[in-house]
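Let us begin with a simple case.
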Amino acid sequence: MPASGFTLFELLLVIAIAAVLALVVAPTVGLGGATLGSATRAFAAAFHEARNVAIAENRDIEVIVDAASSTVRFAGRARVIPRPRDTVVAADGRPLRFLADGSANGVVVALARGQDRRTIEVEALTGRIRVAP
């Protein structure tokens, strides 16, 4: 009479397949994709990149934040920032400019989703980029 049940190999194979599926599905289901925090950090990273380009190329760099398309443009580059669908991005109306020495003109960019709000502050004299909750 044959033994009933599963072999150890079959159980391990099913667990491995479930783990792979969880890794593929988890970022899009349950977590909702991009979060306000990740979008804020992505905007700040684009600003850091623009500041580094200004210093490395020893020239002024103008950074344009297109709130409608969630895009940051500078030095012939464009970074589309993933964000939650109902997130509002607001810049203070003037372009951010990083000077060759790393300083900036000082700009605040705000992101909001419902009651949750985050701001990115670029300090004028130092060009320091701070993310505030």
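The second case is a distinct protein. As before, the sequence precedes its structure tokens.
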Amino acid sequence: MIFHSASIRNCMKKESKILTLHPEGKKGVNISLTRYEQIKKFIIDTVRTKKEISFGALADLAVSKLTGKFDGKVTWYIVTVKLDLEARRMIERIPGTSPHQLRIPAKKPTDPKK
């Protein structure tokens, strides 16, 4: 029996995707939810552990730890997911740093009037 690639694709379960956000409101990209979650966990865990880390150091660490264990271009995914996490305010750039440093934002106190 001969299968065409379209037939095989139709038989395979569709992979879940996520549309990423951008901190400047630019158009995001659709990426694999599995890959997104893997990179998100790496970024959040690393920034939480290091307290502050430069983007370059984060990217270098990701390449050294994830290459061969991750299906995709590690650096591209780090950039894409980092921007998404900034837009979602899960991480933030530290103002006035060059090269830019990242951290987990401080929790803001809740307004007792609300």
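The helical segments are 5-11, 33-50, 55-66, 74-87. The longest helix spans residues 33-50.
Keep these points in mind for the review questions at the end of the chapter.
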